[in-house]
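Propose amino acids for all 142 sites.
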């Protein structure tokens, strides 16, 4: 079960990165070209939200079943244990919140440029945070 969840978590990572780049590109081109907020913009950010929340659920299950997550006195002194127990989950939860808040708050904005700008800012910060956190682990992105 653990191995299957780990593979699912890894696959979802790529889907999230693809949709993050897509949403950011759509928002940036929409903002620059003063394009109306289209159905594609909405659908891409919706799929990003779905994949992100699915990733969070799988990640939480992994967090509580992983042999790398350990609670105790040695947690903060060991670099690898600290990363998996504290740093990874903390940074990724912030990224999930940013993506979620970006999607929800953009839907409440009535001006198209404001929607594009909100999605661009929130998702760009989330992308930087996700890529930075993945790189901290010593793993390659692709």
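Proposal:
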């Amino acid at each position: 079960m653990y191995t299957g969840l780990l593979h699912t978590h890894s696959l979802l990572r790529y889907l999230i990165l693809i949709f993050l780049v897509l949403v950011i590109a759509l928002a940036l081109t929409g903002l620059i070209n003063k394009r109306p907020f289209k159905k594609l913009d909405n659908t891409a950010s919706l799929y990003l939200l779905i994949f992100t929340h699915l990733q969070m659920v799988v990640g939480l299950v992994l967090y509580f079943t992983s042999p790398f997550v350990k609670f105790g006195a040695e947690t903060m002194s060991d670099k690898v244990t600290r990363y998996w127990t504290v740093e990874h989950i903390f940074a990724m939860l912030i990224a999930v919140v940013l993506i979620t808040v970006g999607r929800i708050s953009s839907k409440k904005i009535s001006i198209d440029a404001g929607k594009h700008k909100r999605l661009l800012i929130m998702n760009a910060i989330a992308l930087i945070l996700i890529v930075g956190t993945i790189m901290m682990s010593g793993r390659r992105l692709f």
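The chain is about 80% helix and 0% strand. The first helix runs from residue 2 to 32.
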